[in-house]
Amino acid sequence: MAQPKYEGYCECTPTKLVREKFGDVNVYAQNAKSLLTKATGFIAAYDFTLNPYRGCQYGCSYCYAAAFSPNSQMRQDWGKWVIFKENATEILVKELDKWYQKNPHQPPRIYMSSVTDPYQPLESKHQLTRSLLEVMIDYRPTLVIQTRSPIIVRDIDYLQRFQRLRINMSIPTGSELVRKDFEPRSPSIKARLNAINKIKQSIDRLKGFFPKISITVTPLLPTLPADEAAFIKKLAIADRVVIQAFHSTSQSRSLVASTRQEAEEIKQKYAWWYEDEKLSYMKFKEKLVSQLPGVEIMEGKEGFGYE
Prior knowledge:
This protein is an alpha/beta fold. Helices cover 32% and strands 17% of the residues. It has helices at residues 72-76, 88-102, 123-126, 128-137, 156-159, 176-182, 189-202, 225-234, 261-267, 271-274, 277-291, 300-303; strands at 20-22, 25-30, 36-38, 48-50, 53-54, 81-85, 109-112, 142-147, 164-170, 212-217, 240-243, 296-299. Strands 3-4-7-8-9-10-11-12 form an 8-stranded mixed β-sheet. Strands 1-2-6-5 form a 4-stranded mixed β-sheet, with no helix packed on it. Strand 8 (142-147), helix 5 and strand 9 form a beta-alpha-beta unit. Helix 2 (88-102) runs parallel beside helix 4 (128-137). The protein is globular, with a radius of gyration of 19 Å.
């Protein structure tokens, strides 16, 4: 079957027109053939990944997911286009029903999301992720939600109904200056920490289930020395902190999870950290371990499991 041709990204007659503009982002709508994708590699501990959207408005400079763009032009324009899956809820019901026909006593393990942010700004309008949560509640999955967005607090009423839920809030640096260099379109560090605080404060343990909370400092970006102590102290809000170095850089255009060249260029501004990145990483890890005795400190793949 021919691949869709997206308006603005092809010189031929497009088969997918821009449905709307959301800020400076082209938004396309598309029906998905499937929604649950077999989990492999870094998140092989799960049965499926679930990505409500394709593309991500946050467009972080280092994001490996850009490699999975529909074409090279869209890869270069990462952050300026999003495809939302119009039929997502209908497909999810069918796929979860099919799972339980084969595995009647084994709820699926689902990681949402691996190549997009389920709570990117567009979600505030389309509520696609919210509709998928509503579907999943009755199927009782083990669910991990990976996001960097405060929009997640909108769904506390649904989140507290999942018995096995972990929320991973991505906060790669404790310095706003560094965040603005590497991920200028993303929410502030303060807004992300406030979101975790609100989730913890808003769930009544007598009326709902309390989620596990991780802060994923991944990839580990520099935190300016003046900000470091305060940042580590704030991480105590989580029951787990996960750290991970940058993915290696891929020189090919193939579908490989690698750090984008854009981020490699920004790293040069922080030579004081990256000249000996392994040492910087180890020193930060040691501080986490010594200053957060009540928090589980984990690295890489192991840290992204539910348990």
